[in-house]
């Protein structure tokens, strides 16, 4: 592979992008800063094929990124990234859409039993035996000129990525697990993951209580803060911290002058324009409609027995994940198991496709009292319960080795779901994409 000098002009960029377009696969990475901004500041772009690797300086005077953006929009080229959520957010901001198709090596590693968030360094070491230098990881990428060490480190992210991808793809093909990743890759490509809607910003906050008037004010205040942060391009916490928003929603100041006595706000807000806009947001807030009320915490809709069943399902998931060498999050999510424990059967991913064979059938058997756990000789086992209906296919006793247990033999069949707990638990909030720097 040829490593090219840093690209700082449009003509060279167009020529290098032309070389990449001769390939079906391109590895992509970025370096950015966002400690002091709302939007990530793109500082460096790294690209590689199997033959060429180079970095682009997006801060170079007169550089037009159009050739690069055209590459991102080429659906005939697979873009390979590692933990690419932040990178995709940047591309979404630049182009208004998510690049497609995508392959994320961190997600692929979940199907290989390497954990849910395996680091790039560990992935490189596992597949290539190389130890990468991460000394420049927390450097100031916005400062110019970039040092040779910074550029070498940054380009290394895509040169190793080009080595990882074929090895991982080959392993996925051998194990037949490639299709298992389709849903996760589709989720990665969903534009809604990266588009910030100020009207839903309040859902990320800890709720002060469940009173409709308080939540209505919290929603209005969160929307106001999001718009202020976007307009000024500063982190939302620089406008108002989460705790102060909650306090304002629970105990709104009657006048702008009272803002001077609110902990966490500058006294100057009692007489300036931003204080006026904050008071206007509070004044315009309406009680939150019943349809928008968030689900109650602590597994809403689950009876005590159903909560215990959900806990057993999570234990079963750990067993199945360890045996199959697949990250638990790729197999099932907490809200799906809680819904199954509550009596839901339709529309659950764990009862469809490969997930049903790997986990769903046993999960159903556990919930319906046909499967139980036991401990024997310090090993956990799953076994068919006496007198229970037999599944379509025989399921021999299986063992699992967690930490040793003190009991020589203990059996724990799952209790039947309570009849009053028929509703599915509300879906858990999706976690925020991995961030390299707080913002």
Automatic annotation (TrEMBL):
> Mind telling me what this protein is named?
Ribonuclease D
Q: Which domain of life is it from?
A: Bacteria
Catalysed conversion reaction: Exonucleolytic cleavage that removes extra residues from the 3'-terminus of tRNA to produce 5'-mononucleotides
Protein's cellular compartments? Cytoplasm
Record-listed E.C. numbers:
3.1.13.5
Composition bias (Basic residues) maps to 428-439
Q: Which GO terms describe its biological process?
A: tRNA 3'-end processing
Obligatory cofactor(s):
a divalent metal cation
InterPro entries xref list: 3'-5'_exonuclease_dom, HRDC-like_sf, HRDC_dom, HRDC_dom_sf, RNase_D, RNase_D-like, RNaseH-like_sf, RNaseH_sf
**Gene Ontology MF annotations:** 3'-5' exonuclease activity; nucleic acid binding; nucleotide binding; ribonuclease D activity
Q: Low complexity compositional bias: what residue ranges?
A: 402-427
UniProt keyword annotation of Ribonucleoprotein present? no
What GO cellular component entries does it have?
Answer: cytoplasm
**Gene3D superfamilies from the UniProt entry:** HRDC domain, Ribonuclease H-like superfamily/Ribonuclease H
Give the function comment from the record.
Answer: Exonuclease involved in the 3' processing of various precursor tRNAs. Initiates hydrolysis at the 3'-terminus of an RNA molecule and releases 5'-mononucleotides.
In this chain, the stretch annotated as Disordered covers: 382-439
Instruction: Report domain HRDC positions.
Output: 211-292
- Keyword Hydrolase carried by entry: yes
Which keywords does this chain's UniProt record carry?
Cytoplasm, Exonuclease, Hydrolase, Nuclease, tRNA processing
Q: Which source organism?
A: Sandaracinobacter neustonicus
Identify its protein family.
Belongs to the RNase D family.
């Amino acid at each position: 592979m040829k490593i090219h000098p840093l690209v700082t002009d449009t003509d060279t960029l167009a020529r290098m992008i032309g070389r990449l377009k001769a390939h079906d696969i391109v590895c992509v990475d970025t370096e950015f800063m966002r400690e002091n901004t709302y939007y990530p500041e793109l500082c460096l772009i790294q690209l590689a094929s199997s033959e060429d690797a180079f970095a682009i300086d997006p801060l170079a005077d007169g550089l037009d990124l159009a050739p690069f953006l055209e590459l991102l929009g080429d659906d005939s080229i697979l873009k390979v990234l590692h933990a690419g959520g932040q990178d995709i957010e940047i591309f979404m901001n630049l182009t208004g859409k998510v690049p497609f198709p995508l392959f994320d090596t961190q997600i692929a590693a979940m199907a290989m039993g390497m954990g849910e968030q395996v680091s790039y360094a560990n992935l490189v070491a596992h597949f290539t035996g190389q130890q990468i230098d991460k000394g420049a990881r927390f450097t100031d990428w916005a400062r110019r000129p970039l040092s040779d060490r910074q550029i070498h480190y940054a380009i290394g992210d895509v040169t190793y990525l080009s080595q990882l991808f074929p090895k991982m793809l080959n392993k996925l093909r051998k194990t037949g697990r490639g299709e298992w990743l389709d849903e996760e890759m589709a989720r990665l490509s969903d534009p809604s993951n990266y588009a910030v809607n100020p009207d839903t910003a309040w859902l990320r906050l800890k709720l002060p209580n469940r009173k409709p008037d308080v939540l209505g004010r919290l929603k209005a205040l969160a929307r106001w803060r999001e718009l202020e942060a976007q307009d000024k391009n500063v982190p939302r916490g620089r406008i108002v911290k989460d705790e102060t928003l909650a306090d304002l929603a629970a105990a709104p100041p009657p006048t702008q002058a009272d803002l001077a006595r609110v902990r966490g706000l500058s006294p100057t807000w009692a007489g300036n324009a931003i204080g006026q806009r904050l008071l206007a947001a509070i004044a315009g807030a309406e009680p939150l409609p019943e349809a928008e009320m968030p689900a109650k915490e602590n597994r809403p809709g689950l009876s005590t027995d159903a909560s215990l069943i959900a806990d057993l399902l999570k234990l079963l998931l750990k067993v199945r994940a360890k045996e199959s060498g697949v990250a638990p999050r790729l197999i099932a999510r907490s809200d799906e198991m809680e819904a199954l424990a509550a009596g839901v059967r339709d529309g659950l991913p764990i009862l469809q496709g490969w997930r049903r064979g790997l986990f769903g059938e046993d999960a159903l058997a556990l919930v319906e009292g046909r499967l139980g756990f036991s401990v024997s000789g310090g090993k956990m086992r799953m076994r068919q319960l006496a007198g229970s209906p037999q599944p379509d296919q025989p399921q021999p006793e299986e063992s699992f080795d967690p930490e040793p247990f003190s009991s020589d033999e203990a059996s724990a069949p799952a209790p039947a779901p309570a009849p009053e707990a028929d509703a599915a638990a509300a879906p858990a909030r999706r976690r925020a994409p991995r961030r390299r720097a707080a913002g």
